[in-house]
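User: Here's a chain of 359 residues. Predict its fold as tokens.
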Amino acid sequence: MKAIILCAGKGTRLRPLTFTIAKHLIPIANKPVIYYSLEKIKSIGIDQVGLIVNNENINDFKNFLGDGEKFGLSIEYILQNEPKGLAHAVSIARDFIGNDDFLMYLGDNLILDDISKFVNEFRKEEELKASILLSPVKDPSRFGVAVVKGEKIVKVVEKPKDPISNLAIIGMYLFRSTIFEGIDNIKPSWRGELEITDAIGYLIEKGYNVKGHVVYGWWKDTGKPEDLIEANRKILDDNHFKLENKGIVDTLSDIQGRVYIGENSEIINSTIRGPVVIGANCVIKDSYIGPYTSIGDNVLVENCELENSILMDHVKLLNLPYPIDSSLIGKNVQIVNNERKPKAMKFVIGDMGKVEIVR
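Assistant: Prediction complete.
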């Protein structure tokens, strides 16, 4: 069995961050989102991965992932230069997949459930042509949904206005090579895309056995800033990081709860209340870092309070008069309070930036 991970999306809902980094490479608990996908795939015994990327982000992925050797995987990069839909993404991976069974995983989705049962059942039940991971949701209109009788899927619909089921398709699929028959026999939807739900619907109409596997654990489509903040909170809450201090903590500082401090980082006269992850070469001085905060490498925080936030690499926060909460701050950002007069706010903000001032 092989795997394909779909990473060609532009991440428009995460701009301006995604002008300079692929959304799948944004860190959660100081690990890029895509790392969690690769670890999940490795855990079920798959070692050949096709990464569907676009011509704008392919070099970023190659720089982060290389050939996959550091993950115990072999990664092949497959270009999807136009956003023509999930089924189109599968079709361009046909040479990579060949006649093998394969797992398809949407690369910006985090799924914490153990998927070994989902995969093992598919491996054993040879009559199955597809198996789809499902989960009940409150608002099915935001997702592709499936109607299930017993374990058999009898109908799938992409983002229905009037939902026919509350079982959402959550971004993980298992297919035999039969799915290519379905893709070859569908036409673009009203969105101009080849929908994977239409290809699955073709298999159902032809009488092929398509199964739904329902999970009830936490999962998240990390497509918006608030989704990343929630995912960061969940990962930190669930002990998905080591408790270790590789830095220097002075005697005036107070470390509470589960905290990771990276190499050469200094904590000076500060309180760190976990769960918190702090990267390498950081300086935290005269500050309070509250729960559910992830701080990247080479970050300076001085005379500030923050919690429930993600700070990427090379951020500088100085002398801020109000706490930072529930924030996502990209690389090389500086937020500085300057006491010079006359008092004024001074910004250099790129396209689609967002500043919210709460007083």
